[in-house]
Design a protein that fits this description.
By secondary structure, the protein is an alpha+beta fold. Helix content is 21%, strand content 27%. It contains eight helices and 17 strands.
């Protein structure tokens, strides 16, 4: 996929390591070339932390330490020292939202991948990703926070999750969460430069007139439909939107497509396929589906990205699961 040429560079950036048993702490060995740098400059200029992230660390108890003693960001580093930083989010009080999450945590999505910085789960059709108006406690994020909190003996409010991208409620498939803000920033950067890629499986109505196994590019701008809530359309005045698709399988009255995106506009795949004359099966907004009864046949079936600290390539491929409609 696009961006894999940068893999070797990513895999050389394992300059930090986890403290044993400490999920939210990293250590750096200070080399001779770094001697004389302040902690601030070392973290922001050489290790890719944002200024806000470093500010957050410095106000935490034990947030920035040299040889296990807390120091200021103006501390001047010496070769051979070990710099230790905290990735933990500030603790929050248990809230009404957490109580609602615990009440609605019966349906727990499958965990596909987990390490100290990244969590990937399978979102079912019809489940909302983030808390929003009218959805508190029943979203994918709420449920996963409760699940991890119960497993690890924590409060749900103290389990930070940051979604890397989004999926419509209709769309099922792989959702990747960062488990701390630094990992989130680095994974979002991977999305921006093309190293983080997702592939989708869609079932469309009808058969394509152009019979080819080659990938096709749909480049049509997308904009909201005036006066309609949460509905989009192809519009010359809209935002740039590019979808790549190829025929994977043809059924009697349907076509299965594999797709990936260059941009990530709201409902982009659904809008582009409807514009081409092949709306997604079950799509109540852009096709012949029925609202409240059917979901658009679209699944994020694979993802590839790099572990935000070690640079290890992570590939998740659940095409079989997507084909079964799970």
């Amino acid at each position: 996929m696009r961006g894999e040429k940068k893999m070797k560079k990513e895999e050389t950036e394992d300059a930090a390591w986890r403290m044993e048993g400490a999920a939210h702490r990293l250590q750096f060995q200070i080399e001779a070339a770094d001697q004389g740098e302040t902690v601030w400059n070392y973290l922001t200029r050489k290790k890719g932390f944002t200024k806000m992230q470093v500010k957050r660390m410095k106000f935490q108890q034990g947030g920035i330490c040299i040889n296990q003693k807390q120091v200021r960001v103006t501390y001047v580093l010496a070769a051979g020292e070990r710099l230790e930083v905290s990735l933990a989010a500030p603790k929050q009080k248990k809230s009404k939202l957490q109580a609602e999450s615990e009440m609605n945590s019966g349906m727990m999505p499958d965990i596909l991948y987990e390490d100290m910085d990244v969590l990937a789960v399978w979102k079912p059709h019809g489940m909302i990703l983030h808390p929003s108006h009218g959805h508190h406690g029943d979203t994918l994020m709420d449920r996963m926070q409760v699940r991890l909190a119960q497993r690890d003996g924590l409060e749900a409010a103290d389990v930070p999750l940051y979604s890397i991208g989004r999926l419509d409620s209709d769309t099922s498939g792989i959702v990747v969460f960062a488990r701390n803000q630094v990992a989130a920033q680095r994974l979002w950067q991977q999305r921006m430069d093309g190293r983080f890629q997702k592939q989708y499986l869609a079932k469309c109505e009808g058969h394509f007139q152009k019979k080819t196994d080659e990938e096709q590019c749909i480049s049509q701008p997308v904009a909201p439909v005036p006066g309609e809530l949460n509905r989009m359309r192809v519009d010359p005045a809209g935002k740039h939107a590019v979808t790549y698709c190829r025929i994977w399988r043809e059924m009697e009255n349907e076509t299965w497509l594999l797709l990936h995106l260059e941009t990530g506009r709201t409902h982009q795949i659904r809008v582009h396929m409807a514009w081409m004359g092949y709306p997604l099966v079950g799509d109540s907004l852009y096709g012949n589906g029925k609202a409240g009864e059917t979901c658009a046949a679209l699944t994020a079936c694979s993802a590839v990205f790099f572990q935000p600290f070690t640079g290890k390539r992570i590939l998740l491929n659940y095409l079989d699961k997507a084909e079964r409609g799970e």
